[in-house]
Amino acid sequence: MTTFHAAVVHADRTVTYCGTVDGDHVDAVRAHAELAGAPRHVRDHPEQPGVMFVLRDDGNLDWYVPVDPPAASGGAGAGRQAGAERTTHRERTDAEEGAYPAPRAATGPDYVEGAVRFGGQAIGGAMDHPENPPRAVWHTTESPAGANFFTSMANFLISVASEPQVIYDPVTDKIGQFGPMSLSARALRNDGTRRTNREGLVCVQVEVLGHAAEPFTDNFDPASKPNFRKLLAAMRAHGIPDNWPAGEPVPTETSPMPRPRAVWQGQGGHFGHCHVPGNTHWDPGAISTGIVPGTP
Ligand SMILES: [Zn+2]
């Protein structure tokens, strides 16, 4: 029987080690979390076999690590969901590569006013192709929204090194950032050797809490969401046009997704993860282009 180390990552990123538990305990935790309406949500680590996280609505993140890790086979993602980011070829930060960010040409704000700052704010670096137009990329976390899933999801994204610049909860209007908008994030896969996270003058990525199959703009009124409006204003200040150059985000996992490379590289505006070449996810779902970006 596999034995697991158990720990809790608190909302403030402090970690409490809880000792070891057996596999039956972990199986029971998973089963409870999968009950409809449970105040917790299970996510497997995208790269490390057997490593499991439980996002809790109180903002805590439970973390289970096998004492004797199984051999890495790439087959650990049995519970992985549509919007979960895989990170095998994840972006390294400029700090990790020993490089310094290049001088910035971006003109918009680095932070949405009042955004909660998570982690060390060093998730990427300078853009590779700042000569190409500015863009935004929308994702969904494939998790519950509301309560304090905002915090447990933020700490999950840090734990698996797949941070966007921005995390947003459409239920509570909470907004947070993992890094400045003028530098790159790491929620996209590369397109071959081309680093999609570093395409354009800016590439502002947003992880919205929720599911692609239930578009977050349904029953969503921007008039009552000041942080959402601030986010769109910040994007416009970076010169991101109010359009969707690759078309509207797709409505289903089986929708055609041509991911046109020339459009992605050459045009600015709003994209879904579903539009980015070299990627496979279909998020953020059929969100309303009357709301994202809407009209100023
Ligand atoms: Zn995504």
Give the ligands present.
zinc ion
Biggest sheet overview: 6 strands, mixed
CATH architecture annotation of the largest domain = 3-Layer(aba) Sandwich
Order of helices and strands: EEHEEEHEEHEEEHHE
Taking strands numbered 1, 2, ... along the chain, how are they ordered across the largest sheet? 6-9-8-10-7-11
Tally of helical segments: 5
Could you give the count of β-strands? 11
Structural class: alpha/beta
The portion of residues assigned to helices is: 10-25%
Beta-strand fraction estimate = 15-25%
**What are the segments in which pLDDT stays under 50 over at least 5 consecutive residues?**
74-88
CATH fold topology of the largest domain: Lysozyme-like
Radius of gyration: 19 Å
How would you summarize the topology of this molecule?
Layout: E1 3-9, E2 15-22, H1 23-33, E3 40-44, E4 52-56, E5 61-66, H2 94-97, E6 116-117, E7 135-140, H3 149-159, E8 166-169, E9 174-177, E10 203-208, H4 226-237, H5 261-266, E11 269-272
Bound molecules: zinc ion.
